[in-house]
Amino acid sequence: MKRLGVLTGGGDAPGLNAVIRAVVKTAIHEYGCEVIGIRDGYDGFIDDQGITPLGIEEVRGILPRGGTILGTANRGNPYARKVIRDGKETTIDVSDEIVKCIRRLKMDALLVLGGDGTLHIAHELFQKGVPIIGVPKTIDNDIGGTEATFGFDTAVTTATEAIDKLHTTAEAHHRVMVLELMGRDAGFIALHAGISGGADVILIPEIPFKYEAVVAKVRERVDRGTLFSIIAVSEGAKPLGEQQVFSRTGDEVYVPRLGGIGQIVGEYIEQQGFETRVTVLGHLQRGGTPTPFDRWLATRYGAAAVRLAAQGKFDRMVSLQGGKIVDVSLEKAVAVPKRVDINEDAVPVPVMLEVCHISFRMSMGELRLL
Ligand code: F6P
After folding, report:
1. 78 lines ligand 1 (CB under 6 A)
2. How far, in Å, from the CA of 293 to the mean position of ligand 1?
3. Lowest pLDDT segment from 11-15, 132-136, 248-252
């Protein structure tokens, strides 16, 4: 193994730099192998100056830094690259150009740090002959085939701190505070931060909710003298029988953007006579320094990905299982996204039932919607 490529694609997540650092150090120290970085996801293969050498100097001091020194792009789909042709916007397939570029660069492996979109593309490029290895990244924690993605722990920490801060002002003003959190179609961030921060109601995409049940909980608290409530709402949560709320529709290039359900829930509660404020935590969940857990996980993933490349095990993804780093089929890992398992998630569900009992309630041993 003489030369490795590494790129970061999709939305950023705290810990990307820690993976890059581990990749460079492992490649150089264990294998005497050169590393090149590709800037801005797959776009770097096409753009001028998109390729950059990565040595020990380039990764010095980046372990605690959020973002990615390589840049990223969450519209960088080589199968649908946006271009202007005859004055009109259109999309073209540049995947073959990318494959040629990888061959020209004589890469023995390409390590792709990404979420489901980026890893799907990685698997497709493997089918075109590119020696690919995936590293699961996302604050949403929604990639199948692994118990954890790096970035999630940092996002949950930020979201929990936000709930702690909202608690003090909610209590002082006797208000309901609604906090909208990221996560797309998976409720992991809202569930983990909501439980850790002691939210009174947690709404997640996996369990459609009823507005009346949310208000009933707020009223019940007021009736027993607790004049404030905290509601953690995942951006993908939806009322029973209704659709998710989007702030922007998608197209061939852009994925649809979820957002706005927090405001709708807040307005409903306010209309029922409870003073309410809404906070959308947004991209604060993606920024900042990674937690020690994310640095630890990211570093292990980075080193493991290089070792997989050395063994020639391609079309694989590094994964955390039972505390150990293993590798799984990339194709299988991205085939089914991970969601909160409301039947088997032994720790949070009973706590949700006891603390929140809003979206659902245990009835005769079964989870029932309220
Ligand atoms: O997938 C990570 C994520 O932060 C989601 O939680 C969120 O829905 C989305 O990305 C936001 O994307 P953008 O950076 O395009 O606003």
Report:
1. no
2. 21
3. 248-252
